[in-house]
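Why do we bother with holo predictions? Because pocket geometry can differ from the apo form. Keep that in mind while you read this record for magnesium ion.
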Amino acid sequence: MQDRPEPRARQETPTLSVVVPVYNEGEGLPAFHARLSRVMNDLGESWEVVYVNDGSQDGSLAALEALRADDPACAVVNLSRNFGKEIAMTAGLDHAGGAAVVMIDADLQDPPEVIPDLVAAWRQGWDMVYAQRRVREGETWMKRATADLFYRTMQRIGRVRMPRNTGDFRLMSRRVVDALLQLREQHRFMKGLFAWVGFPAIAVPYDRAPRHAGRSSFNYCKLWNFALEGITSFTVMPLKVATYLGLATALLAAAYGGQIIVRTLLFGNPVPGYPSLMAVILFLGGAQLVTLGIIGEYLGRVFNETKGRPLYLVERYQPSRPLAPPRPHFAPPARAPAEP
Ligand code: UDP
Ligand code: MG
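The structure, written out:
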């Protein structure tokens, strides 16, 4: 796959990788990295953090490069433009070398302090450890209600079961990451893909905090498209609804036609019927337009997939420089890892 980097040499890979998509998070990044690195260093494992700059327009890239200059655990993948969070996360996974990979938002809504719990569950043998929100602080009633409706709908019509109240904040074992990275579709609905790959999964509850700095880049228009993506990526149910709607309409029309014939035969035809005619025409027209729209949604996605474009383009990749792990004294001295 042309957009995936070469796997790194074995001894260079850390035990834990943290993947962080970054879009216009400049002001919050130093605070985020400070909290993250405190938590990760306390874990006592080799680790790296892969920051993916998703075409930010603020000083995020400069902030990331400053972090990397100070901390060899930082890798920076700079995408050539804004590709959206789902693809930014995929780029991060592609560049993460760890035996387990944690995905976390840069806005401190997902507290890094939860990571040790995720790692503990992974140590017990779980492949997918997702952080499940206990409360959603700092979010409006409306957002909570729409999120709730979405999970409910997906559980009902989708084939995959997505755990409720989970975001992208989670830990994945290497085999889950490798499985996930085999799915190179353009329309990436990550929450669905996580559920699709399967493997033993467990939830770790946590409290989601309000945003630390900056503002959410998600609005209702984006969320609606997100929900549409989720539904069309994981179920063809709406297409079936269209079929049955058409079938039901045809049956009703046949019954109505029969009734008109019988009535005309019995009582003659005094030519009324403008309202009923109008009602039927409008109803059929509406049903047809909706059906065409649904087909269009799927067709558009087929079109996008057939182009087979790479998911993203990397403008510059600056890998982390993991410190050589402590070696037994009889081993040959380790060479310092070369600066890229
Ligand atoms: N993000 C990204 N690309 C985008 C939008 C967002 O990489 O096009 C990142 C953002 O920097 C943050 C995470 O995705 O780390 C979550 O974004 P946000 O807080 O805006 O979403 P919300 O928490 O409201 O779901
Ligand atoms: Mg957020």
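The pocket of uridine-5'-diphosphate (ligand 1) is lined by residues 21-23, 25, 54, 82, 84-85, 88, 105-107, 109, 216-218 (CB under 6 Å).
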